[in-house]
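Researcher: I'd like a structural prediction for the single chain below. Treat it as a standalone chain; there are no partners to consider.
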Amino acid sequence: MACSASEEREREARGQSREGRDRDKPLYMISVAAELTGMHPQTLRVYEQKGLVTPGRSRGNTRLYSQSDIERLNLISKLTDEGINLAGVVRILDMRERMLEREDELEDLRRRVRELEDEVHEYRMREKITALARYDEKGSPEQVMRRLLLGGPADENEK
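Model: Treating it as a single chain, here is the predicted structure.
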């Protein structure tokens, strides 16, 4: 299902880009996942049982692994090859997940600070323009700004 450009921008703003959604799409049966990771299918079942990976399921209850599952399994393999036991792997994966969540939160906060900086800048510019412009008791600061910015009458009565 295609989504509109505004929906795509909104998802990207929430950190859900098309690429990110594609990485989480369950695609690979256990035999393919085992081949891609160099692991035995039984190892993948054990890792699922221990909560290290959670593959999707088809309607027929077949395990389906996503690209992000494959990447996670490759990381698990790398860690265990370095001598880290599964309890340590669980801790590392948990810390990694929390770190990624914090990075997402930090990016959201940075985006919000930029938005607020833009709003403050706009407010200060309006204040400066209003302070510099002369207006009589009939004209409001908003009408003066409209007149200055648009070069025309501030309200319908002045036409």
